[in-house]
Amino acid sequence: MTEEGMWSDLPFNVGLVYEGERIRGKQTYVELGGPKQPAKFELVQVKDVKDIKDMDVEIIGPDIPDMKEGGNYPIGVLVEVGGKQAEKDLEAVLERRIHEFSNFIEGLMHLNQRYDIWMRISKAAVKKGFNSLKMYGTVLARLYKSEFGKILEKIQVKLYTDPDKIKPIYDNAMGIWEARDARARDLSDDEVDMFYGCTLCSSFAPSHVCTVTPGRIALCGAINWFDARAAAKIDPEGPNFAIPKGECLDELAGEYSGINEITKKKSLGEIERVTLHTILSPYNHTSCGCFEAIAFFVPEVDGVGIVDRNYKGTTVNGLPFSTMANSTGGGKQVEGFVGMAIEYMRSKKFLQADGGWNRIVWMPAGIKNRIIDAIPKDIVDKIATEEVATDLDSLKSFLKEKNHPVVKNWVEEAEEEEEEEAAPMVPAGGMQMPSMVPMMGGIQVASGGANWKIILKGAKIYADEIHIKRIQPKKKKKK
Ligand code: SF4
Ligand code: ZN
């Protein structure tokens, strides 16, 4: 390869510089996988070296010249590797690198992982001579060899575009992924001294650092604690690294001094504190863009909704996954929104600081059915789906009818509000409008003869209009 990232036998460049390249619909020559395809996959399997034809790339199904411009086709990427040190334990981390290596290619964009993959090849790349998927497979094989040469003695790549050939491998892969995920289910965050991190996505989201614990698989769903540990062991300087737990600062929310310290360092000071098991903290775990699902707060019912990437409709808050993904991702800490893996819903620590399953009020039926065995029996029928609630009104009625645990909070909150409203806001002798005086570092409120200073530290407040209304004390309703 030349310094510019050029292999003389390939018509496109390959390198880190192309990693953040976006290929929009209009620029796309052909799309592979993505939401239009029911079955697609990428999978790495360790095999006996004698069964591998080194550096071989095979296309099973139509190749680029057989595809229509603007078309969408199924895809399956099977990478088979072998070598004395190539252990089964490494399959998941090797598999996750397909995302990175694919994105090194000029004119190719790769999103997501496992059964969710979505690729686009640009018109410009095809014009330049990118006219066979064989070139793509060759780049994968070469990059694996150059990065993992000590471990991988042989590698072969099979690229499937024939849906009949994809389906059986996809079905088998679903079982392989389930077995990988199941390994970490019995282990708890409390039983280990070491967590692990991943910064593979920092080229897309520079401040994003994933913390992977037994109770919190990475939000892409592709790297669990065992996988990250295996990767950190073979290459401690690579994108996966050990995070000594340090002191537990908040057991329920999952805040540890070790995570804070390493995240601060790896995010170049951007992220100082991280909580693992809540969406209602200002220190929520950051989200890059490859999360399988989003947990979102629904303030109107004081509950948490979940929407997965494959759900096409709008959720109860009127927003689809894509809109929420834009505001959740990018490596920010967004209170009330967190990207997560489907497998995280099986964790014993699943959003435990927010009330866990007792706080979940809505999720698409597809994903609910997929993980139904993980939902506690006493709550499963109380969680709404799009089949019974499509907006906030229907959600409220459903939760009330089912007596969902969040309903109890509505009553308590309403009572508290009534108490507050009924409490004397005025000094004896007359009604006085509370006065608000903006001042350096805070707002001063004079009410009921007392002065209060409200300090909004680090707050960013946006408002199209501000209405200041006189509040008339209401009479307390009879209970
Ligand atoms: Fe790594 Fe996290 Fe990106 Fe998954 S989402 S590849 S664990 S940084
Ligand atoms: Zn990511």
Can I get a quick summary?
This protein is of the alpha+beta class and 479 residues long. It has helices spanning 91-103, 123-128, 133-148, 163-183, 225-234, 257-266, 321-328, 365-370, 377-380, 392-402, 405-422, and strands spanning 28-33, 41-46, 56-60, 71-73, 76-82, 108-111, 118-122, 154-160, 194-198, 210-212, 240-244, 248-250, 255-256, 293-298, 303-308, 337-340, 360-362, 435-439, 442-447, 450-454.
Range of helix content = 25-40%
CATH class of the largest domain: Alpha Beta
Q: Which distinct ligands sit in these coordinates?
A: iron/sulfur cluster, zinc ion
How far apart lie the N and C ends?
78 Å
Named CATH topology of the largest domain:
Bifunctional carbon monoxide dehydrogenase/acetyl-coa synthase(codh/acs), Chain M, domain 3
Q: What is the number of helices?
A: 11
Q: Tell me about the largest β-sheet.
A: 4 strands, mixed
Poorly predicted tracts of residues: 424-453, 473-479
Oligomerization: single chain
Descriptive overview:
With 479 residues, this protein is an alpha+beta fold. It has three domains: 168 residues, Bifunctional carbon monoxide dehydrogenase/acetyl-coa synthase(codh/acs), Chain M, domain 3; 108 residues, Ribonuclease HI, Chain A, CATH 3.40.970; 113 residues, Bifunctional carbon monoxide dehydrogenase/acetyl-coa synthase(codh/acs), Chain M, domain 5, CATH 3.40.1470.10. Helix content is 26%, strand content 20%. The protein contains eleven helices and 20 strands. The strands form six sheets. A four-stranded mixed sheet has the order 4-1-7-6. α1 packs across α3. The longest helix is centred in the middle third of the chain and has 21 residues. It starts with 27 loop residues before the first strand and ends in a 25-residue tail after the last strand. The structure holds iron/sulfur cluster and zinc ion (ZN). The site of zinc ion has 5 residues, from loops. The site of zinc ion (ZN) has 5 residues, from loops.
